[in-house]
């Protein structure tokens, strides 16, 4: 059994939607990022990699590499999933927290849960997605960006 944690932040910038867990959510801003900026998937990738001591997403997909420019973060997630399977592990469960004042995540949680479960070939009840504000404190409170935390438990296959 292995446990991993991941954390990521992206700033808001010009745009009309953000992508979270491969779901496009309408917003007054987009994410500033090299890839599609899917902060939730990036945190999950780091949790999976961390659980197997395989480094972090930036080591596997360097922002200096043009191949990952505007890349769909599902590419990163599938690769990280394959790596942990090659180490002999499967996902027991994932639990995530999105930290932002805006946009409201609750209406999209079920869609995100189902999408991530499909991508990772899990039951939706193995993918916890939660959201919280920081009570208007800090960069998330000032609506400058969003943070995501993820924890995963891996089980030996
Ligand atoms: N961006 C967000 C932040 C929070 N929520 C939901 O609002 C509820 C209350 O949040 P607190 O900051 O008071 O913990 C909570 O149930 C969150 O799910 C949201 O939808 N989007
Ligand atoms: C995902 C990568 C891909 O180049 O870039 P960004 O989209 O900027 O996201 P970040 O969370 O900074 O992770 C680093 C990179 O691996």
TrEMBL record:
Binds 1 divalent metal cation per subunit. It is an enzyme of class 4 (lyase). The keyword Metal-binding applies. GO terms for biological process: isopentenyl diphosphate biosynthetic process, methylerythritol 4-phosphate pathway; terpenoid biosynthetic process. Signal peptide: none annotated. The keyword Zinc does not apply. It catalyses: 4-CDP-2-C-methyl-D-erythritol 2-phosphate = 2-C-methyl-D-erythritol 2,4-cyclic diphosphate + CMP. Residues 1-154 form the 2-C-methyl-D-erythritol 2,4-cyclodiphosphate synthase domain. 4-CDP-2-C-methyl-D-erythritol 2-phosphate binds at residues 8-10, 34-35, 56-58, 132-135, 139, 142. Keywords: Isoprene biosynthesis, Lyase, Metal-binding. PROSITE patterns: ISPF. Its EC number is 4.6.1.12. SUPFAM superfamilies: IpsF-like. A divalent metal cation binds at residues 8, 10, 42. The record marks 34, 133 as: Transition state stabilizer. Pathway: Isoprenoid biosynthesis; isopentenyl diphosphate biosynthesis via DXP pathway; isopentenyl diphosphate from 1-deoxy-D-xylulose 5-phosphate: step 4/6. GO terms for molecular function: 2-C-methyl-D-erythritol 2,4-cyclodiphosphate synthase activity; metal ion binding. Its cofactor is a divalent metal cation. Involved in the biosynthesis of isopentenyl diphosphate (IPP) and dimethylallyl diphosphate (DMAPP), two major building blocks of isoprenoid compounds. Catalyzes the conversion of 4-diphosphocytidyl-2-C-methyl-D-erythritol 2-phosphate (CDP-ME2P) to 2-C-methyl-D-erythritol 2,4-cyclodiphosphate (ME-CPP) with a corresponding release of cytidine 5-monophosphate (CMP). Homotrimer. Belongs to the IspF family. This is 2-C-methyl-D-erythritol 2,4-cyclodiphosphate synthase. It comes from Marinicella litoralis. The lineage of its organism: Bacteria, Pseudomonadati, Pseudomonadota, Gammaproteobacteria, Lysobacterales. The gene is ispF.
